[in-house]
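Protein in question filed below.

…
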Amino acid sequence: MLEEYRISGRRASDIAASVERGVGSGDLPPGHVLPPMRELATRLGVNPNTVAAAYRTLRERGVIETAGRRGSRVRSRPANTARGSLRIEAPPGGRDLGQGNPDPALLPDLREALAAAADAHGRQPGLYGDAPVIPELAAFARAAMDADGVPAGPVAVASGSLDAIERVLSAHLRPGDAVAVEDPGWGALLDLIPAMGLRAVPVAMDEEGPLPGEVERALRAGAGALVITDRAQNPTGAAIGDERARSLRSVLVEHPGVLLIEDDHGHAIVDLPLHPLAGTTEHWAFVRSVAKAYGPDLRLAVLTGDASTVGRVTGRQELGPGWVSGILQRAVVHLWTAGAVDTAAIARSYGERRDALVRALGERGVAAYGRSGMNVWVPVSDETGVVARLLRAGWAVAPGARFRMASPPGVRLTVSSLAAADIAPLADAMAAAAGPVRPVSHG
């Protein structure tokens, strides 16, 4: 079957990415039997352990399944939501720190906003042919981005960050193209890329974001796009500071043809300043979602970018859903203009919980990272064992396999459901499950 789709790669991560690429493009359909590990190792000229590691990664991500002597095959329902399906159910009476949701107590009551939007709709119903973006939303979003130093550009609206990123990638890339992504990074994005027939290239990072040398390596290797999280990076909490931003701009300016996508989903839940990279390359997009501060179910993100990119996105959008509901747009405008959310208080609340947990873990000899947002990343040597031991202690956490490509194992803890009294017991359980771990970079 290798003649139909040639799996490639010398490293385990590259072999796994090649298989994911084949699954995403449809060249490796559901049920397709993969070559035996030794046979593939011989063809690729690598150690069988390398192929074994690649297959293990693919199993962890839900892309393939192994049926004993019948070998490994592409799962019947593969890839698109594989990482998200790696969820650990909290035991009865246990605590779930793995879902990544915001604290419901910090989300606004939407009834007033929806009533205001319905009232506006009653006065002027949205009809075919109307502008796809409500003028008030475009003006408010653009003013906020202007204040943060995001370059001028038209405003579009999508159904959340992932929808916006997919539309931007589709506007410029074609199946087989490479996309440089943070590693560890957002699991949904790591699923999306192979599902689009694209190839993910991991970029190692630390608490300041992607390492400039790693970005340079990925772009020189031919990556046609780079997706970066400005603040509250998922899963590590990394945030790009001024010095790191300058270094990354220096790299990007040497690659003007690269598509740059910035995800600033944490803009309303963090108190760190934004250091945008947008405008460094010819084609770029800057995306902001309302999910974390105003509610995931609103399904709305604004994006800006160069005129060509935004034009391609909106043009293609017109041929599909057409537009994001004007009622939802008006509800978001009401939330923004009515001061329904105290963003400073939200940032402070998440920051206090996150910092307290990182500090408590450090006091117990466990390295942990979480510079911004609602997540803490803990490197571990035995990911599966740590998750299992924490589960027995009553804590469900997110396994790092949901977020990793080539980076070392770890687990993600979301602090949004924690109270001050939970910090010490959780830190004790984490220390008992993981033991002291030598601090390492996220790459």
